[in-house]
Write a structure and sequence with these properties.
The chain is α+β, with helices and mostly antiparallel strands. The protein has one domain. It has a two-stranded parallel sheet. The longest helix is centred in the first third of the chain and has 17 residues. The model has no long low-confidence stretch (mean pLDDT 95).
Length: 70
Amino acid sequence: LMTIAPNVEKSEENRKNFKKIKKISVDIIEKNYDNIEVEFLSMGMSGDYTVALEEGANLVRVGTGIFGKR
């Protein structure tokens, strides 16, 4: 499951979005659908990955943090 949160000034502003996506992932897992496996929860980018990790992300995208701005 992957989300890209809104571009905000303060990463903390996206905490509520990350919480919602985490809840959706838990709901999907608990329903135990056939042929659906939620192994990764991809939330957060260079500017907000710490909040995303705190809210349950196990995959983040930090391209700008590594390569710099385009």
